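Figure 3 (text version): C-alpha cells given as input.
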C-alpha cells in the first residue's frame, strides 16, 4: 500500500493567522485541529480552517516542503493559498468525503 503525506495550511479566517503542518493522514489531522483534540499553536489560536494542502509520495519530500514553506514570508504563503483556494473556503468537507 502506498502511503501519501500532505503539507497543509490552516487559518482562522481569510488572511488570518497561518499554520503550516505535515501529516500522513490529512482527514484525521484536519479533524484533530477542528475539534481542538491536540493542544498547541493551532488550538491556542483557533486555527480550524484547512485552506491549502499538497500531497507528496514520501515523508522526506513533505518534510522538505514544509520546512521550506515555514521559512517563507507571510505574503508568499497567502499567495500559495490563493492559488488553490481564492475564496479561502474550508476544504475539510472536500477531503472528508
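Below: residues designed for each position.
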Amino acid at each position: 500500500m502506498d502511503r501519501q503525506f500532505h503539507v497543509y495550511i490552516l487559518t482562522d479566517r481569510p488572511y488570518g493567522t497561518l499554520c503550516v503542518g505535515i501529516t500522513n493522514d490529512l482527514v484525521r489531522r484536519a479533524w484533530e485541529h477542528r475539534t481542538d483534540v491536540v493542544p498547541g499553536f493551532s488550538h491556542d489560536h483557533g486555527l480550524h480552517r484547512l485552506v491549502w494542502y499538497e500531497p507528496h509520495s514520501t515523508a522526506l519530500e513533505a518534510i522538505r516542503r514544509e520546512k521550506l514553506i515555514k521559512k517563507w514570508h507571510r505574503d508568499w504563503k497567502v499567495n500559495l493559498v490563493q492559488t488553490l483556494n481564492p475564496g479561502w473556503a474550508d476544504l475539510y468537507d472536500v477531503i472528508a468525503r
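The first strand starts at residue 5 and ends at 11.
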